[in-house]
Design a protein that fits this description.
Length: 220
């Protein structure tokens, strides 16, 4: 039962981490963090992301323009860029490290302690990647809500609302956090036994090393 749980937790953790990493990369580059609908022109919608703003028109389609200056951006967008890049990097490292710690990977099968440490490190990296994705998405959402209900802004002025990328980012962050937790749970559970053939090979290698050590001692 412990072996089944360990294997299922590893596969589920890696799958969720991979899904979260892909979605976090999409969230980083999608220009749909905020949406703006104009009451005066219902056929024209504006969207904003971390890297560009776009206008969607029924006749002309979507036209986007990148931000001219990084320093001219609001603080939440500047920090969000850095944190999303950090999330993408940590997520990739987490997948890479945890992949070498999986039981189904025969490389280094006899080094169980090393594989366990790699699995724990991969889980921590995936968990950190999820937090790094949730923070900027939640920050931008909080700022959007504050600006939407700001009473100092006249009612005639259009207000930015949540874009699809925010919901995608929340789902990505939660997937990465849950995937990292599952990987750590799998690493803390009991180890899977070696297959008979691999156990025999490992035992023969140990006997051979012991025999070489004894011969060396006799010669000295």
């Amino acid at each position: 039962m412990a072996l089944v749980f360990r294997t299922a937790a590893q596969l589920a953790g890696v799958s969720l981490s991979l899904l979260g990493w892909v979605l976090s990369c999409l969230t980083n580059y999608l220009p749909h963090w905020k949406n703006l609908n104009l009451d005066l022109n219902e056929m024209e919608n504006w969207t904003m992301g971390l890297w560009q703003t776009c206008v969607i028109q029924e006749e002309a389609g979507m036209q986007c323009k990148a931000f001219d200056s990084f320093l001219a951006l609001p603080a939440e967008l500047r920090i969000s860029r850095i944190l999303m890049f950090l999330s993408n990097g940590l997520g990739f490292l987490g997948l890479l490290v945890s992949g070498f710690g999986l039981d189904c990977l025969r490389i280094g099968e006899s080094q169980r302690d090393l594989k366990r440490r790699l699995l724990i490190l991969g889980g921590i990296l995936s968990w950190s990647s999820g937090i790094s994705a949730l923070v900027p998405v939640s920050w931008v959402a909080h700022t959007t809500v504050q600006e939407f209900w700001d009473e100092t802004i006249p009612d005639i002025v259009p207000r930015w609302e949540f874009g699809e990328a925010l919901f995608l980012g929340w789902f990505a962050g939660l997937s990465l956090v849950l995937g990292g937790c599952l990987l750590n749970c799998a690493a803390c559970s009991s180890h899977a036994p070696l297959a008979s053939g691999h156990y025999a090979v490992a035992q023969m290698q140990d006997d051979h090393q012991q025999l070489e050590t004894r011969n060396t001692n006799l010669k000295n």
